[in-house]
Design a protein that fits this description.
With 67 residues, the chain is mainly β. It contains no helices and four strands. It has one domain.
Length: 67
Amino acid sequence: MALVREVAFLGLTANGVSKTTTTTELTLTFDSAFTSLTADNITLTGADKGSLSPTETPGIHTGYFRH
């Protein structure tokens, strides 16, 4: 039996600036660390998904994409 735990999504930040710099990286922040999140769990419209990986900070995952 798998352990089920609720994880809350806290926010999303982009490394680009609207109408100035193209965004190539999205950072997703959650209230706790977990390892089951993959790029397949995320829907992205208007760009091609790349890799998704946890950062050194628990609960923060960074995804890369190409527009």
